User: Fold this.
Amino acid sequence: MRKGWKKILVYGICASMVFEYIPVYGEGEEQEAANQKELVHTQSDGVILTGKCGDNATFTLYTDGTFVISGTGAMYSYSYDWKEYKNTSGWADYINHISKVVIEDGITTISPYSFYECENLTEVSIPDSVNSIGKDAFYWCKNIEKVSIDTVGAWCQIDFENNNSTPLQFG
Assistant:
């Protein structure tokens, strides 16, 4: 009987250790958690991180600091986690590695908080296909030196959610 008791204790301790690392999600966080599962970490071919950032959009962070969003349509909508002091995107833990953002033609929105406090960001390229840039997408990106756009006409048609949506605020 004593041996059975010890096994139950050991299994109970193991189970509590496992459950400690299972995330608990609040309302609206389930989609963000699902997005995070799409991440693939790799150091091959100069790639630091890659993952999904929209139904038909992906991102790749290269070792040289270039961050590319490619595909079609809108990005997932991200928020800012005020407890962790970072956005809820799949690249939030790598935000300080990003020095150049390239949004490829076909992407229609840049999510709120996408590059919030990306202080090493110096260059941004935005195609004509982008028609909306979310709240605080480029907040406190104070080192932007160059913003490339395809046409001024398309730029004027972008719906900027607030002043911190535009990379020109600091560029």
